[in-house]
Please model this.
Amino acid sequence: MDLLTVGTFARPTDDDALRTLQPTLGPDRTLLGGGTWLFSVPQPHLAGVVDLVGLGWEPLVAGVDGLTVAATTTLAQLADVDPSSYADWPAVALFAGCCEALVGSRKIQRVATVGGNVCLALPAAPMVTLAAVLDGTATLWGPHGGSRAAAVVDLVAGPQRSALAPGEVLRAIHLPAAALRARTALRKASLSPLGRSAALLAGRRDPDGGFVLAVTASLPRPAVLRYAEVPAAEVLAADVAALGETVGGGWYDDPHGSPAWRRAMSLLLAEEVRRELGDTG
Ligand SMILES: Cc1cc2nc3c(=O)[nH]c(=O)nc-3n(C[C@H](O)[C@H](O)[C@H](O)COP(=O)(O)OP(=O)(O)OC[C@H]3O[C@@H](n4cnc5c(N)ncnc54)[C@H](O)[C@@H]3O)c2cc1C
Model:
């Protein structure tokens, strides 16, 4: 939809220009990633936007220590990464599944950005799931210079509540090589085949046997469980059930699923992930 109150539009083409604009960001002037959310709901408070798309950030940069995904990388670019190009990093196979968990057409995936998905902070944000299970670290540019690093899982404070400071820009997400060497599994539950995720769980089995489970969409904010080895079914079930008591006020409740159903799906999917990544899986 048109945003009729927006009177100023800036499209910086280099980092310095963006950094100059950052102090001007606030409730009435915001960042534009792909705009798939920003232009989907009325924004009567907005007078201006700063578009990130002209910055030309390299979508994916691989190094010995892992893979850095620019915030402006689109979901389509991530989904199109060929896992066979990263033979040492089997976890890359998770990219496409996480992108497909966002139930939008290819048209949406071609413009929706990784940064926009994380910063919007919906419980069903699959880029949060991906980063949560792979120990993703965000680089955040401060509104008045400087930068800080934060675990992506800590950037989601609650539904549509990110922990970014006003004017802060998510520049990139780093996925460490240690996590990318893992085998992974992904499970999703939704009320209809093409519905929004009501529970989205991703698991990781490290070469040293360690097991990590990210529980998302069924909770108001993401949770990560970690074990030195694949836990027994009862242990994992108890830990997943306990998340409903400890994380963000309990199992999430919205038109995409009731709390009781989300709890049940989280338990079911956690066990499926455990079995797939277990030695007998
Ligand atoms: C049909 C449809 C289905 C959808 N399904 C899902 C779904 O299943 N799960 C889900 O999570 N979302 C869903 N969405 C919402 C949205 O499209 C996605 O979350 C998308 O990834 C947002 O990315 P974007 O780049 O378009 O963000 P934008 O709309 O551009 O921005 C979203 C927010 O993030 C901020 N922002 C953007 N980039 C940055 C940055 N680098 N640093 C700081 N702040 C930034 C913006 O200011 C804005 O507040 C859906 C939307 C549609 C239309």
